[in-house]
Amino acid sequence: MSTDTPDLPDEVAERVRNVRVEDEMEQSYIDYAMSVIAGRALPDVRDGLKPVHRRILYAMHRAGISSWASHRKSSNIVGDTMGDFHPHGDKSIYDALVRMAQDFSMRYPLVDGQGNFGSIDGDPAAAMRYTEARMGPIAEELLADIDMDTVDWKSNYDDRLQEPEVLPSAFPNLLVNGSSGIAVGMSTNIPPHNLGEVVDATVELIENPDATVEDLMEHVKGPDFPTGANIVGRNSVHAAYKTGRGRIRMRAEFEVEERETGSDRIVISELPFQTNKARMIEKIADAVNDGSLEGIRDLRDESDRDGIRVVVELKQNAMTEVVKNQLLEGYLEKTFGVINLALVDGEPKVLSLKETLQHYLDHRKEVVRRRSQHELDEAEDRAHILEGRLTALEHADDVVDIIQDAEDRDGAKADLQAEYDFSDEQVDHIVRMQLGSLTSMEAAEIEDEYEDVQSRIERLKTILGDESELLSVIEEELLAVKDEYDDDRRTSFIENTDEVTREDLIAEEDVVVVVTEQDYVKRMPVAQFDAQNRGGKGIIGGDIKEGDRVSKVFRANTHDYLLCFTNQGQVYSLKAYEIPEMSRTARGKSAVNLLDLDDGEEITAVVNTDDFEDGECLSMVTRDGYVKRTAASEFDNILSTGIIAAKLEDGDELVDVKVTDGSTDLLVATRGGMAIRFDEDEARTMGRNARGVRGVDLEGDDTVAGMVAAEDGTDRDLLTVTENGYGKRTALSEYRKQSRNGKGLVDIKTGGRNGGVTSVKAVAPADHLVIMSDDGQIMRIRASDISEVGRNTMGVKVMELEGDDGVASVDVIPDGSGSDDSDESAESEA
């Protein structure tokens, strides 16, 4: 493309230059970014204000809308500000005005609003035509002495007026009220503080310029939010004050009210800064409705003009500590990210606590110095006038005669200057004097005033000549502001103990977990079930939905970390306490709320990871008789969506999983009553995606019922339970070892009376058994109550079943743990 300048008039061509588009865009964007940074989004370290806030306050000051004046329509204030100083739209101005009037946004509101200025529930303020405002008393401290040449001025946007570049600011507003804003490539987020603490820290820095951040922290304990609440721990606060950056954890103020009815309540009285109360309540309610937050019966907002009060009513059987911890984790705690970024001489800088106060002090020195110089100039001018008046009083008769003899006023001035060497200012004043001022009383008053002015001049010269005197003035004025506006701290500190997890708040106890085919799941304390004699009916263990039936029952501890294997060969991780605890008669909770199960996917085996040791494997068996072993280490990190545990052929299902260490035998039992035992090494270790090898040769439509890890030389027997409620114990030694993929030996006679095998377990005589039927009946018996017999026998009645009910699942309670009942008491009760 040609870069030649087109034919233009000479006066125009002189102003045309060729530039690359990239260079122009880069420079224009930099100019825009700096404009946003310096002129819109970041506060000045000296007065803690952004331009829009500074312009609003100055516009109010200029219009005389002080704290003692009547309120003025907000639209009037916004219009004045926009028309004279801030031509960026009325919405941005009104939003800034509203925030300065909100006592839940500003620690010390700078605007006194009248009308609807919004609420902590997120309600917007009324339109500016409906609200009224005036300056808050403390805002006047920011503007004090602004008319005494204390700050620099600049032209407004149309060069029609002058506006202050910064306000004098009689207190460190940047820290006291904080600030937040997003510029281009940077942002600021400064928390508010208690005015008394900040003033004390500033005074400390005045008296001890070498004070460290730690020394200043003796006064500034930490942020003091307008909504109160608590700060968790002090380390994060210290880090923020030292570096200018940090993350402060805020926690709501609440208490747990215990009631005689047994249903506690949690009462929330203070919220973390910038928390929307209505939105928080809505989120809690949503969590209760979708089941992710349990134990809450009712939720009410009882807040009024006296303060916040949100009541969380708990259910009678709810674990208060667990609910409290869940509320803290998701709703009652919030993090404030401190970025102490402010403009220093027009440049954005991240500042420590000491640097922030030092820059404020430097500004305040300049203000007091300029004010003192302004006052000195005025005092000296007044002294000069008073000196002339005193001279005139000493020669009153002569002065009167000279004035009377003069032809006109100018002649009188010239004659007086010739006679007494008066300056132009003095002679102007003398000529304008009234005769009444020549009285002796007036003369005494002038002499007294002259002495006062001379004393004032001497004091001002001392301030200007001695920095220690200058600093003492600053200190005195800071303490005066503190006396006027200081109040009690609102935000408290609580110790930052280690993170409290739900697990820490759950009582450690053995539980029975029940899973149905339609994936309803619940847990019940094992101690709820007393041991009965074999052959009993048991008690109700669940309200099974019509068309559903129990598929699995297993024992766990509430602190166990479980791997749940499904019929489709997937494995999911689950903490036992995440399974909801419910009564015996409850149906349970859908497992899809806990695990990401697909349609038709059922939990068929559960393994406790506490059982894992180095070098161990998970041995698996499928319904069609395939066996595989996979290193337990491959199941360390389980996704919430689950991972593949075994690859299955079409129509096959995963039936059982056991933890083995390479030194045991695997005993696979079939529903037809066969059992085969072989060395686990015959099934080599494979990856998770492998199918495995054939472990048993099934006849006809026979399928695998379960698997146990068998060891010789132990007191453990093979317990076999059939679907019609019969079972037996047989010494594991009676099952000789064979090669895998054999037909095995007869374990138990199946058929009309017994039905097919439903469960096999390795048990010791001291163990207890939990047996559950398809319809939800559950019973607990001692393993020793079931006769020990040989292979190929019928077994004895274990559980009495009604109608078409059948045994669904059996699990073992080692050594009968989890019961307070002795054998004798349990047997007599049975």
CATH hierarchy: architecture of the largest domain = 6 Propeller
CATH fourth-tier homologous superfamily of the largest domain: DNA gyrase/topoisomerase IV, subunit A, C-terminal
Biggest sheet statistics: 5 strands, mixed
Structural class determined from secondary elements: alpha+beta
Helical segment count: 20
Mean pLDDT, all residues: 87
Name the descriptors.
single chain, 830 residues, alpha+beta, Topoisomerase II, domain 5, Topoisomerase, domain 3, 20 helices
Compile the SSE list and pairings.
Layout: H1 10-13, H2 21-41, H3 51-62, E1 72-73, H4 74-84, H5 90-101, E2 111-114, E3 132-135, H6 137-143, E4 153-155, E5 162-164, H7 173-177, E6 179-182, E7 187-190, H8 195-207, H9 213-217, E8 230-232, H10 235-243, E9 245-251, E10 253-257, E11 265-270, H11 277-289, E12 296-301, E13 310-314, H12 320-332, E14 333-339, E15 341-344, E16 347-350, H13 353-394, H14 396-405, H15 409-420, H16 424-432, H17 440-465, H18 467-485, E17 492-494, H19 502-505, E18 510-516, E19 520-525, E20 531-532, E21 539-540, E22 550-557, E23 561-566, E24 570-575, E25 589-590, E26 603-608, E27 617-622, E28 626-631, E29 643-644, E30 654-660, E31 665-670, E32 674-679, E33 693-694, E34 704-710, E35 717-722, E36 726-731, E37 745-746, E38 757-763, E39 768-773, E40 777-782, E41 796-797, E42 807-813, H20 823-829
Parallel strand pairs: 8-17, 20-40
Antiparallel strand pairs: 1-3, 2-3, 4-5, 6-7, 8-9, 9-14, 10-11, 11-13, 12-13, 15-16, 18-19, 18-22, 19-25, 21-40, 23-24, 23-26, 24-29, 27-28, 27-30, 28-33, 31-32, 31-34, 32-37, 35-36, 35-38, 36-41, 39-40, 39-42
Helix pairs in contact: 3-4, 4-5, 8-13, 8-18, 13-16, 13-17, 13-18, 14-15, 15-16, 17-18
